[in-house]
Specification:
Layout lengths: L2 H28 L24 E10 L6 E16 L2 E15 L26
Antiparallel strand pairs: 1-2, 2-3
Length: 129
């Protein structure tokens, strides 16, 4: 590459970086404050209720990426939306999602899907996506 070609590439990269920074600033301007508190019991629901008309969003994310052999990545997530109908009744809606990619991660080097996808048939040399 000569200096003329290198000079032509620089404005493109700086414009791309400028757009990225502008997008990040725009998103930061519209972000609202989030409050978080520690859950006393990780997988147990407590009897705390939301006041009438109040809402709450909770997210859980688990990344599993290590197996004895092969390649394995699994990202499990759950988003929970809670709303207080009255001071003594609240409702919740859950969205569960899962992404997995595996290759030669099982016994004897076979590809095996995680238990959520146990009904899928995968060949021993296939990549599970």
């Amino acid at each position: 590459m000569d200096n003329k070609t290198l000079g032509a590439a620089r404005p493109y990269m700086s414009m791309r970086r400028c757009r990225s920074v502008a997008l990040a600033l725009l998103l930061a301007m519209f972000a609202s404050a989030a409050g978080a508190e520690e859950s006393m019991f990780a997988f147990v629901y407590t009897t705390d209720l939301l006041p009438q008309g109040k809402s709450e969003v909770e997210q859980w994310v688990t990344w599993r990426h290590q197996k004895n052999g092969g390649f394995y990545d699994q990202l499990e997530g759950r988003t929970e939306f809670e709303y207080g109908l009255t001071d003594r009744l609240q409702v919740a809606l859950y969205a569960n999602y899962n992404w997995t990619q595996a290759f030669h991660n099982g016994p004897f080097g076979a590809t095996t899907p995680p238990e959520q996808f146990a009904d899928y048939v995968v060949g021993p040399d296939d990549i599970f996506r």
